[in-house]
């Protein structure tokens, strides 16, 4: 509220309830604004005060591994050799056809699928893709189910289009694998979609092929029971980030009405470039209408199209990747510290997050950690109190230097 409005209120010319600067819905969103981003901002302030090397910021999933070297040369070559009208101009809302064709061919090679450019829509990251597909399928009052713990923005994305997010309670006894019985009990006649995220943020858990088959069976049975299709939305920014020789099943092969939201933010370390894609297979119900509607949603949501330069750049880097061994080494280094100090956690097999159990309320614990200049995100931000998320996509030195802070917490709670 600006100074002029405040003066008018004090003078009796306006009453506060008559001032509508921001919508009620936006006020609600601001009151529950991202804990992760708030932590990240706290980290920057603390780094300025104490020195970056003395702050142990595990709050944000910002990749610490650099993009592949090839990307740099590809971008330079594109800028030097492609006509600006094409390089920076508008294209079909779904993206450059040749880029979509290359992505389809790459997926077909990796997963033995049968996609063409018609199945691919370029998006402004996976977040943009989620908003596009939710805009495409949701009517007011529809429900979207997800498993707790979950990426908190799912709730906002769903509510953007009049939907309601319904969370399956966290399976804390089963290492956060999907609880199939709870899923069955959560799906209702209002359910329009299930969002799953594997490898998972915030737990780092990777769903097995058996998990996926069980989920698919529930969705098939429930779709028949309630008389309409339930879509499976696979949020896949971490697909390539898996360790211990695990494989991530490709979901379109298990359930016909699967829509994939993919991002290059983690696989190529390009979070700020906002580039990804949707896969809508031919088998999806009302495919022709769905694909046209999703392309239109890209336009009317204000994305218009995914960034042109990055579309062309990633098309030449589809077989590239970052060195995930760095993240795996970070995981091993971090778990060694936590094991030594007596903390309990779920061992992550993917992504770059670890979900650690807290000895008391997760928000209180996170505040105590902050006093040691250790930034951890409370599990309640992911719909799962009693845990904190540790993002280990940091330099190895941050993990090494954080030992003393973790040790003080372990001593405080008598964990050792």
UniProtKB/TrEMBL annotation:
**Molecular-function GO term, any one:** transaminase activity
Question: Required co-factor?
Answer: pyridoxal 5'-phosphate
Q: Could you tell me the keywords of this UniProt record?
A: Aminotransferase, Transferase
Q: What is its EC number?
A: 2.6.1.-
Q: Does the keyword Transferase apply?
A: yes
- Entry annotated with the keyword Repeat: no
Q: Which Pfam families match?
A: Aminotran_1_2
Residue ranges of domain Aminotransferase class I/classII large in the record? 61-401
What protein family does this chain belong to?
A: Belongs to the class-I pyridoxal-phosphate-dependent aminotransferase family.
State the protein's name: Aminotransferase
């Amino acid at each position: 509220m600006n100074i002029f409005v405040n003066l008018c209120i004090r003078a009796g010319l306006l009453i506060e309830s008559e001032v509508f600067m921001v919508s009620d819905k936006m006020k609600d969103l601001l009151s529950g604004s991202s804990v992760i981003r708030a932590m990240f901002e706290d980290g920057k302030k603390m780094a300025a005060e104490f020195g970056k090397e003395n702050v142990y910021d595990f709050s944000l999933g910002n990749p610490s591994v650099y993009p592949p070297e090839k990307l740099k040369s590809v971008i330079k070559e594109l800028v030097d050799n492609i006509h600006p009208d094409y390089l920076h101009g508008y294209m079909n809302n779904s993206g450059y056809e040749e880029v979509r064709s290359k992505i389809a061919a790459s997926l077909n090679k990796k997963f033995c699928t049968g996609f063409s450019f018609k199945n691919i829509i370029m998006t402004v990251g996976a977040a943009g893709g989620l908003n596009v597909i939710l805009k495409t399928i949701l009517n007011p009052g529809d429900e979207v189910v997800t498993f707790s713990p979950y990426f908190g923005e799912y709730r906002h994305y769903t509510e953007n289009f009049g939907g309601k997010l319904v969370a399956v309670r966290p399976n804390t006894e089963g290492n956060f694998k999907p609880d199939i019985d709870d899923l069955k009990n959560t799906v209702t006649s209002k359910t329009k979609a299930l969002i799953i995220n594997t490898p998972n943020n915030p737990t780092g858990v990777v769903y097995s092929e058996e998990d996926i088959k069980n989920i698919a069976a529930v969705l098939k049975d429930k779709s028949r029971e309630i008389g309409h299709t339930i879509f499976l939305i696979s949020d896949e920014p971490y697909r390539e980030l898996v360790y211990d020789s695990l494989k991530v099943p490709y979901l379109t092969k298990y359930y016909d009405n699967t829509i994939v939201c993919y991002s290059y933010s983690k696989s190529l370390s390009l979070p700020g470039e906002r580039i990804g894609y949707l896969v809508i297979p031919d088998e999806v119900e009302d495919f022709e209408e769905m694909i046209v509607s999703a392309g239109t949603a890209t336009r009317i949501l204000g994305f218009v199209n995914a960034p042109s330069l990055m579309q062309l750049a990633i098309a030449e880097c589809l077989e590239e990747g970052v060195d995930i061994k760095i993240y795996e080494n970070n995981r091993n280094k971090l778990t060694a510290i936590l094991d030594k100090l007596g903390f309990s956690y779920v061992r992550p097999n993917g992504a770059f997050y670890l979900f650690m159990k807290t000895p008391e309320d997760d928000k209180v614990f996170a505040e105590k950690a902050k006093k040691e200049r250790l930034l951890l995100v409370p599990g309640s931000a992911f719909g799962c109190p009693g845990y904190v998320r540790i993002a280990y996509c940091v330099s190895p030195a941050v993990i090494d230097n954080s030992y003393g802070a973790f040790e003080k917490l372990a001593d405080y709670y008598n964990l050792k």
